[in-house]
Records
---
Amino acid sequence: MAVNPREATALQPQPAAPPLPETAGEPVRQSNLWRDAYRRYLRNRGAVAAGILFVVIVLYCFLIPGFWFVPGIWTTIFDIDYNDANFAEVHLPPSLEHPFGTDQFGRDLFTRVAKGGQISILIGFAATIAILVIGIAYGSISGFVGGRLDNGMMRFLDALYGLPYLPFAIIALAIIGTVNFWTMVIALTIASWFTAARIVRGQVITLKQNDYVRAAHAVGARWYRVLMRHLLPNTLGVLIIAIFLELPSVILGEAFLSFIGLGISPPDPSWGSLASEARDAYRTYPLDLWIPCLFIAALVLCSNFIADGLRDALDPRTRET
Amino acid sequence: MAAFIIRRVVWTIPVILLVILMIFVMMRQIEGNPFQKTNRPVPPQVQENLERKFNLDKPPWMQYLLYVKGVFTLDLGPSLYATDRDVMDIIKEHFPRSVKLGVLAFLWAIVFGIPAGIIAALRPNTMFDYFLMFFSSLGFALPSFFVATLFIYYFSVQWQVVPVQGWPLGFWELDSRVILPSLALGLFPMAYFARLTRGTMLETMQQDYVRTARAKGLRWRSIVARHVFRNSLIPVVTATAPLFGLIITGTFVIEIIFSIPGIGRYFINSVSNRDYAVVMGITVLTSVVIILANLVVDLTYGFLDPRTRTSRT
């Protein structure tokens, strides 16, 4: 679990915000949370730029090599397979056909980096969603039921916090036996779902004390209705932010595992394994290392900026000074 | 305060027991585990001896209790790969090197990260502030294996400032070879501390007691030192707990890149060698280290901020 300092500050009690200046004379307009949030997000130029870059990277990763049944742009135009070795074209410099050059087996790096990104991003999103689902289930039960159960479940989480991330993921991989896409997702999920559970629990406990929840109880709403209708929808904002806080740490975790050689197995690329392969020949072909690493860095930075922008947009009170 | 310390320390024991239990259960799930019986014909006497040696003739709960006893008496049994060595010997040999690496990385972070954060908070929105924020964003985003590779290439190969590889083996032994690994590992915590210190300093400076102190006419310098800095330190101290886990994760990669014979590299080799006794021993060790680090951080927290003594257990 890579910890983000923004996350740390987000979890701390924030000072009360000064009252918002009222614009006099303007007609009262109907608005809702999401439209407001959208407008506030657009005002944050850094977050918008990060969002655009994020989308561009994702499009590159999915459209260039193709995915599922969609043919890739590059693979179709130049008839390239990202896993096919071609020893006549080893270590070519960048050209139109191979904008990033080729690697030591003559494989086109432009499509390989894209495919690697695709795998990294898919693992990242799949693990993040799994983390959130487990976190929501665990956190909402713990926070909603409260009392002894809550205490016990939180103590259990405390114990899990003691487990170091990487050994834990490696042992999880060893238990499952083979390393493929889904085992990576499972291993990374097992190793880092605790934070999401804590966030959801904290949020549910705070929301539980709101008057509308008590009112719902008073008019006889069943517990599942209170939970589904009043509590969980209100945690949605925090969870969307949590996606973009979790994503970089999962992507970095995957890169670390692949780099050590315990990740996605060759010939399929991932950003971590591409970097690992390129490291030995850095002296002669520095570009091969720079490209995947800069993609990792760009994606992590974008996620951080997006999370920041989303937090400001969804909850103006927590705006950083 | 005494009650708080006792409660907190006593609570650590069941946590350690639970963590050992979980690691124990997980390790027993691994396929191809030497603890499981195979189809290969082994003479019954050998099988029996092996089982006795690794306590496999006893029921699982007994094995667990024996392992816990082993943890507390610092005797984790023999290694399965290097059969002439005990797990504890291996840990004793390799762990201090990793500790040295981690401590040095932390030192970089504290010595440069916190002051940088303070200066940035005192001069917000200046060139230095922007530069620092940019730099700390890079520290977060760039994977440490990338930074480490660049360090080796430029500082050792290209400019030949420091040797390419190697590690002074003695715990107190320091030379130029420790600079690059510890800096590569310390970059993330450094960025983390700088950002966190800056954030909490700016937040504290808006508190009423700071305004009161200014209204009283105290010198700004002493306000910063006595009111702002001390109160900003608390979140920074709490933030060190999750950092321990990160540093441990980081040592795995850094030790491989710089060929440091530490515990992380040994762990990865043991995974390939299927040396489950060592894998388990190192996992338990790092877990216990993290739990104890959390304990120390919590106690410090309780010491710095008396309000937390009652609410946190």
---
Amino acid sequence: MPERDFISALHKRTARNYLERVERGDKAACASVAREFGREYWDGDRKYGYGGMRYDGRWAPVARDLIAHYGLCNESHVLDVGCGKGFLLFEIKKCLPGCRVRGLDFSRYAVENAKPEVRGDLDLGLAQSLPYPDFTFDLVLSITTLHNLHIDDLAGALAEIERVKREHSYIVVESYRNEREKANLLHWQLTCECFFTPREWEWVFRELGYAGDYSFIFFE
Amino acid sequence: MAYIDFIAKIHKSTPRDYLERVLRHDKAQCAEVAKAFGKEYWDGERKYGYGGYRYDGRWRPVAADLIAHYGLKPGDRVLDIGCGKGYLLADLAESLPGLQVHGLDISRYAIEHAKEEVRGALACGTATALPFPDRHFDLVLSLNTLHYLHIDGFCAAVRELERVKRGGSYIVLESYRSEAEKANLIHWQLTCECFYTPEEWEWLFDRFGYTGDYSFIFFE
């Protein structure tokens, strides 16, 4: 179960003013809106989430790295838990047109407003009850999603990922390594429910039986 | 195992400016100082912890309630994990002569500056490795302490607490029921490592085998 990082370079590209969301004084109200994972979260003001981020192809290098590392081919079956609008699956499919991609997200808005090329590959559902048979996927991904779950649902989601995967999985979660990164995470996050250091995450993975790969993003 | 609240009245008697700690001070720096649990935390500025709070007898009614509820009698042994300066133990000993009180705290400073009457009954140590025999205490208390541990430490502390008790136990933890209380907790806390809703805490109790009583404090 190694730590592998496919994501940090992308995460670090975005500039964040960590305190801004606190200074506004309406953090709790914004978090309530964000947690609905509706239009405001995906395409609304930055104070509610993505701030109307327009897709610029940024997931293409991540898709290429994942394909190379996990040896994906046109016969592979890939699931993305918390796929959002399906950008990563779109990039995987672009490289491997025969690859069977599947995405799951809790947000009806994200699925309905997904990239048209993969919209038909996405399902609405919960990470803790994946609507797929056992041993279905060669690779299960979950990128910056699982920390949004409460710990009981996190346990359910990790068990589900283990159940539906045939071989590999790779998850990315938010974490912190020192007081500065902890403060940045606490102040920046809107929907995070798991605040763990890397050591805690690794303990949680063992305790909850997650045996796949992982990496962390930090708010430096 | 029951939810019983002995301390909300005390918690609510303190007014707190939640945002001040984030906006007026460098939270990460303050947290680093606080986590040493030294002079600054106990007797320094408010931004580092207690703000030089002077004991005013506020734990006396809690001591009386605990004695009545748990039917404590002279000769019984009580342990307070995270006893700090021993105020609650001193009030317990004063209310019930003959009660054998013991305290443990990670902070050498707190023990050296504890209330004189109980100083000899306090030891410096960690909740994850209690220096006491099995089934040694008629009542084990841990008030506003265990959420300072990381999740693996909390798991170990629960195991230790269960090991040394032969009667009841009562623990108090920080928690939140809404986005507003979550934001208040995040902004106010300096040393908290467990951010869980009541449902999550109860899930962890179940999983880690905690069988005693508990209550939560909220930042309303």
